[in-house]
Amino acid sequence: MGGALACRLARAGLSVAVVDRAALPPMEHPNFDGRAYAIAAGSRALLEEAGIWDKLPHAPGPIAQIRVSDGKPGRPASRLFLHFDATELGAGPGHGGALGWMVEARNMRMALNACLHAAPGLKLYAPAVAEVTRTASGARIWLDSGEDFPARLVVAAEGRDSPLRRQAGLTAARWAYAQAGIVCAISHTRPHDNTALEHFLPAGPFAQLPMAASEAGEHISAIVWTERRDAAPRLMALDDSAFTAEVQTRLGDHLGAIRLVGQRWMYPLSAMYVHRVTAERLAVVGDAAHGIHPIAGQGLNLGLRDSIALSHLLIAAKAAGEDPGGPALLARYARARRLDNLSMLVATDGLDRLFSTDNPVVRAARDIGIAAVHRMPGLKRAFMRQAMGIG
Fold first, then answer.
1. What's the whole-model pTM score?
2. Whose CA is closest to 370, among 359, 358, 380, 381?
3. Does residue 72 fall inside a structural domain?
4. Domain holding 32: CATH number?
């Protein structure tokens, strides 16, 4: 998230400019639209340091527990399961008693836009189109308004089709999954007790993520549902009643009767890995640097960890009088992010291939593996800390 990085750096006293093609009014899209972000415990620190967390207009919903199970739609889940509980990590710092938090997309947009407009030392050009030139001595940004200004470092945070990344000749490996992601929100009659469900089905993972109460209902959960790409459009075309019945079939009845709230969204799923995330006077972050399967809900958090690493390096460089866009700093950023980005890509891709199958032999093996991890406290804690970004 480039905006969070910009706000963090501005609050640390660095001179920052943000150029965005879209206008960013502080109250953009204020209505509940069914989308939410899962913010890992380790990522929350950046949002706090950027001033975004305190500006969230509604409280986020904590994820205190996660239950992982295997099964088929309309059938009971396997009796072999894996259960994560934040209390198993003790009362140490870094997680605040939760594995993560669910933040409504509208709340994040409103808080981020408010910070972008208010951060000291941050110049916001939106909407604007920029041309960028980079040399060993520095960069220059030319705006469509006719204004131009110098920079010592350019950060590409424009998403998977980043023009700045392409301009720099940084290549990306891509592959598509035969799956689509369906995103929506439901209200339910029973409380979720801040517990998330990750239910592995033959077509892909089905996740229920606990959200805080809002005007949409007292008991609200986000749904992130991976389905076969050829089946997803048919499901999206169903009326609300039939669509809700399909969700209920996969979710089960532990939350009672459910009702669809907000809109439904569908996204084709794919993965991407950028071999080099730096070039002369350029650093690449977030979706411009990588794209992963949503099976573990780590896509946004992986991008926030890019911003955490880069912000630490740039703030230290300012204190030391070091060139913030020099080759030495960019090399440290690339080293800091290479292993995390690659390992998360490999892990999510492997998990999807392991769990998105109905092969009975594979199902039996993974059920045994899930149950084995559940009975190994040390390994469970290691998995939790890694997923929370505090490992």
1. 0.90
2. 380
3. yes
4. 3.50.50.60
